[in-house]
Design brief:
It is a single chain. The chain is α/β, with parallel strands linked by helices. The protein is built from 21 helices and 14 strands. The protein has 3 domains: 20-116, no CATH class; 123-239; 248-430, Dna Topoisomerase Vi A Subunit, Chain: A, domain 2 (3-Layer(aba) Sandwich). 49% of the residues lie in helices and 10% in strands. It has a 6-stranded mixed beta sheet, sandwiched between helices. A two-stranded antiparallel sheet has the order 1-2. The protein has a two-stranded parallel ribbon with strand order 3-4. Helix 15 (300-309) packs across helix 20 (413-420).
């Protein structure tokens, strides 16, 4: 049995009480050495798992020192062979009889500190996870497919687990509160944060804005943003303004009046010079558009080519530079007629469909025939992302799905310039509502 003065004297009953400090020091000498660390670790692991402390633990390839340590602990030979088997109830009885510990748990915690209850921790973690999920499902968008896909993705990739492990249990509830406020109408980001969470800076840094933007990417069927510009664009798609100076629209020959900004636009139009307008300018210096209609393209290369080739002869032209910004929407909402086009990709199709729905815009060279002519006119890149519908021409989306190819707007520049040339005979044809 346990040696080194640890056994009770002959003829005396086992000692049931002992001085804690003295007992712990004796326990360290008996059980705390490196030769028995494997035994302590096995017991600690079992307790943490909630497993019973019965049966036998076995150490394969035990060293002579480890065998001798077990022999001293149990007061008997440890046997021979390559493995060492130790009955846990026998160890517990030896420690108790020597007055070193009440049981194995007491012994291990005296040596290495309290043992976490893994089973209880798992149960508590499950309750926290369920609470976070329930809070998210209170969002008014919870019945939408994009919302379901967003939550499933956060669960599958471990985001929810990481949030809970870092103590950010409220993140999903806060994300749901933010999404409840959307879509908005030119709502500043700090104002959105304050309305949803009570903290104006809650959307200024991770993890909340990252989680919300992943939801918005699902909502708008775009890739999650990886750059500052992409994050700003995605916020603006939902009516949230990160920076009214960064939100801009590029214009050519768009005349206006009613403020200094209107005068600047008209003067630049007289010279055929492109002019970039910020949301801040549009807000502080409202204008009235003098143009009867505005043509809308997606790529700056088109506007730059129009400025170079046509100058003041170019019809009023606005460039969205990708997905329309808040500044772009604010300006174009004032137009009477919009002729709108974008790249022949799924994002471009969605943008044009949205413009038709929101502004009753007329599609500009966005028909299936236009696409098929363009896709056959050179090498194209593969379509990416989820497919979209083209309600103004069902054949367009069908043709794009069949081809699997995207066509950038630049390939049509020679046709677009002909439409935009107000001094060209083709321009009178281009103004016909039938042009698509």
């Amino acid at each position: 049995m346990v040696t080194g003065g640890c056994s009770p004297r002959a003829g005396q009953p086992p000692r049931q009480e002992w001085e804690p400090a003295v007992a712990v020091e004796r326990l360290r000498r008996v059980l705390g050495g490196p030769e028995l660390s494997w035994l302590v670790d096995r017991v600690r692991t079992r307790i943490a798992r909630g497993a019973p402390l019965d049966g036998v633990v076995t150490l394969t390839s035990a060293t002579p020192a480890q065998r001798q340590a077990i022999s001293r602990l149990l007061g008997r030979p440890a046997g021979h062979g390559t493995s060492l088997s130790v009955p846990l109830p026998t160890v517990a009885a030896a420690l108790r009889l020597a007055g070193l510990a009440a049981d194995l748990r007491d012994a291990v915690e005296s040596l290495a500190g309290p043992i976490p209850d893994r089973a209880a921790e798992r149960a508590q973690f499950t309750l926290r996870r369920e609470a976070a999920w329930t809070a998210a499902m209170t969002c008014r968008h919870a019945d939408q497919d994009w919302f379901t896909a967003w939550l499933a993705e956060l669960s599958a990739d471990g985001t929810i687990t990481r949030l809970l492990r870092s103590g950010r249990d409220q993140t999903l509830a806060q994300a749901a509160a933010v999404l409840d406020q959307l879509p908005a109408s030119e709502l500043p980001l700090p104002a959105l944060a304050e309305q949803a969470t009570g903290d104006t800076k809650a959307l200024s840094g991770p993890p909340l804005p990252t989680v919300v933007l992943r939801a918005l990417a699902r909502w708008h069927a775009v890739e999650p943003p990886t750059t500052h510009a992409a994050r700003r664009t995605l916020w603006e798609m939902s009516g949230v303004i990160m920076d009214d100076l960064a939100s801009q629209v590029l214009l050519l020959n768009v005349r206006a009046s009613g403020s200094p900004l209107g005068s600047w636009l008209t003067e630049s139009a007289a010279l055929g010079i492109p002019f970039r307008v910020t949301l801040h300018q549009l807000t502080t210096m409202p204008v009235t558009l003098d143009a009867g209609e505005i043509w809308v393209c997606e790529n700056p290369a088109v506007l730059r080519a129009a400025a170079a080739a046509l100058g003041p002869r170019c019809a009023p032209l606005a460039c969205t530079e990708g997905i329309p910004s808040a500044a772009c929407h604010r300006l174009l909402a004032r137009a009477r007629v919009l002729r709108w086009r974008a790249d022949f990709d799924w994002t471009g199709v969605r943008v044009v469909a949205s413009a038709i729905s929101q502004y009753r815009a007329l599609p500009w060279r966005m028909s299936a025939d236009d696409y098929l002519d363009a896709v056959g006119d050179g090498q194209s890149e593969a379509l990416k992302g989820a497919a979209a519908n083209s309600p103004w021409d069902d054949r367009l989306a069908a043709s794009m799905r069949e081809s699997g190819q995207a066509v950038m707007e630049e390939r049509l520049i020679h046709l677009l310039l002909r439409d935009l040339d107000t001094g060209s005979p083709a321009a009178s044809v281009a103004t016909s509502p039938g042009l698509s």
